[in-house]
Amino acid sequence: MGLIDIEMFATLDLVGQAPGGPEEDPEGFPFGGWQAPLLNEVTEAQIADAYEGTDALLLGRRTYDIFAGYWPHQEDGEDGGFATLFNSIPKYVASRGTPDLSWAGSTRLGPDLAAAVREIRDRHEHTKVVGSLDLVQTLLRERLFDRLHLWVHPIVLGVGKRVFAGGTVPSNLTLLAPPAASPQGTVFLQYGLTDGTPVTGDMSAPDRGLPQREQQG
Question: Bacterial bifunctional deaminase-reductase C-terminal domain location, by residue (predicted)?
Answer without folding.
Answer: 7-175
